[in-house]
## 1
Amino acid sequence: MAKIGYVRVSSKDQKYDRQYEKLKAEEVEMIFEDKLSGKDTNGQNFKNCWTILEKGI
């Protein structure tokens, strides 16, 4: 089973770099990302990540 991760930042000025570093160190193979508020769970890539997790890929 693939290791799956999700990264999120709240604004266009923020970067994913540190989150990616940590996931890569854990050998995460599939990473989804969104730029949206932490209160919002409607990000398209959040939904895509959740769908993959539900399917157990």
## 2
Amino acid sequence: MDVPANEGFDFQPHDLVPEKAREQISDKVSYELRPAKGPDGSIADGLYNAWITLNNPTQFNSYTTDMVKSVILAFRAASNARDVNAVVFTAAGDKAFCTGGNTKEYAEYYAGRPQEYRQYMRLFNDMVSAILGCDKPVICRVNGMRIGGGQEIGMACDFSVAQDLARFGQAGPKHGSAPVGGSTDFLPVMIGCEQAMVSGVLCEPFSAHKACRMGILTDIVPALKVDGEFIANPMVETARMTDEWGRIIHGEPKTGDELAAGKAQMAKGEVDLSRLDEKVEELCTKLLMTFPDCTTKTVEELRKPKLQAWNANKENSRAWLSLNMMTEARAGFRAFNEGDKEHGREVDFIALRQSLAMGARWTGRFTNSLMPGAEK
């Protein structure tokens, strides 16, 4: 194709990160340009999809402070790159996309330090805003569970494609926080107020099949291979059906003998994410076959319900989360970090409520008394 040459034309650099440094943004966040492909599978010379990958699998790809900064820089680089078609936001491994903030760092550094956490939350806010403000369509490749803050940064993306063993949900009120890093803004817009309440308050994880039914996924693909064949998640009801009360049970956990059979199939199988990669690549190609500026404008307009809610609340939420590090967050994150299988990873909620009802103060001794396994 005859394309006008730009000989002698020097582009003005608008990047915060030098081009040569992008691929080494950090050891726990990678930035990679992968060739874009046309509908026939051929490589579109000179065009790419930017893959931003969280790489902290031993901690379920939870993000540390340094990782948050790296994600901001990576999205800024992808947004400005003239040769980038779309951004794929994903993570290493097949267990987790992201489970939110790094609870070890929260418990050992930020707990009890509200001013430090306020600065951290400025970075977190900027990370969400970097996703919502990216000049390229953003696809969340959900390679595993997307929980807590991971659900929030995932919902900030424009599209989400998941492997169907993944689980979704919030964790805040169970672990000393509130899902005000995006979920209280995005969930009512995306799934309605009632289901947003169920997810945000009760913190009960749900399947990828249910997430797709609720409207927070573009698509799902099987990831479990048994005897060389892909099968749907055997732990949940994947048939489109209702129970005797007329309630939809598609995507709900199996019970009894069916659950036992599902566990047996899980034990026999292996996880293969090749279908996920194919589906993400297919979506990238669909985006490639559009006018770029028209696509950007459309994406910007369709983001507005999420963006308006986010911008209206993020600073108030930041302030509340910071102060909460002196009370419930201090207890909740410590409990998760210090707990174990024997004693669990949650505080004694009944003792907490009983003590507060009697006027207890948030002292160090009181916090210690709430830890899993603490002597009463």
## 3
Amino acid sequence: MKQMRASVFKARCLAVMDDVQATGEPVVVTKRGKPVVKVVPAARDNGDLFGFMVGRMKIVGDIESPVVPLKEWKVFKK
């Protein structure tokens, strides 16, 4: 994990943020030799409504046919 003084971070803030985003390696900013903050890459938020559960479920079997056979439906018995 990289460390840098606050004065260096202040001068190179945007470049440091770009490096953290590109490499994923956090940077600890120190003040008088003591850690003050840690700059880490932000988690990417997939705010899309469709497809957010991709890969989390597995479809097994027939998902289109009714669970109960049509012969047993009460609405057809009238």
